[in-house]
Amino acid sequence: PARNGWCWVTATYADRAVPPIGVMGGTFDPIPYGHLRLAEEMVEGLSVEQVLFIPAGQPPHRGASRTAARHRLEMVRRFVDLEGKRILDVGCGIGTYVRRFRQYTDDVHGIEVEPERVAEASAELPNIVCAVGEALPYPDGHFDLVFSNEVIEHVADPLALLRAVRAALRERPQARVFFETPCVRWILRNQ
Question: CA quadruple 90, 95, 100, 101: dihedral positive or negative?
C-alpha cells in the first residue's frame, strides 16, 4: 500500500510473517529533513520495523545528480552507525565498498556472482564469496547492515532479493538496508 509518496511492505518468509518494512526513494542529494521525519513517522505511526532508503541514481523528474554516489553514501552514513557492525555488500564486485566499510568495522562480507571479480576482491579482502543475492549463504539474522549498489535492477527476482536481505538482517531496530539503484521504474515494471 502507498500513502503520500511512500509505501510499506508486509510479506511472509518461510513460515513466519515478516514485519512491515518502509520504503523511501529519492536522490538524497542531500537527505532532506522531511524524508528523515517521514521515516520516523512510519516507524512510530505504522509500527514499521525498519525503513529502506533507496537512492535513485537518475530520477525521472530532474536532471543529473549533483553529488557523486560515494558522497551520497557518506551522507547516509551520518544516519547509520557503522562502527563495529556486521555488514554485507550484495554485488560487491571487486570490493570497492567492502574496502570502504572496513574503515569502520572488520566484520564486512561481500557476495558477487562473477567468479573473476570474487577472485580479484579475495586477493586483498577477507569474507568475499561467489553467491547470488536471492539465496544468501548466511544464517538468518546475521547482519546489522546490508548494502547494495546498483544490483537490484539486474537480478531475475528483485522481491526474492529483498526477502533474502530481510531474513539476513538482525531482529532489532538498528538493522539497516541501503540500496542504490538508478532504475526504480524498471524494478517496479518488472516485478
Answer: positive
Q: pLDDT (tens digit, 9 = 90+) per residue, 131-177? A: 999 999 999 999 998 988 878 878 888 888 888 998 998 876 677 88
Q: Are 113 and 130 in contact (CB under 8 A)?
A: yes
**Nearest CA-CA partner of 91 in 136, 141, 54:** 136
In three state form, how does the secondary structure of 14-59 look? CCEEEEEEEEEEECCCCCCHHHHHHHHHHHHHHCCCEEEEEEECCC
pTM of the model: 0.65
Q: How far apart are CA 118 and CA 92, in angstroms?
A: 8
User: Under a CB-based contact definition with an 8 Å cutoff, are residues 152 and 164 in contact?
Assistant: no
Coil, strand or helix at 146: strand
For the chain, what's the residue count? Answer: 191
Q: Would you say residue 94 has pLDDT above 70?
A: yes
Q: Which strand (E) or helix (H) includes residue 10? A: strand 6-13
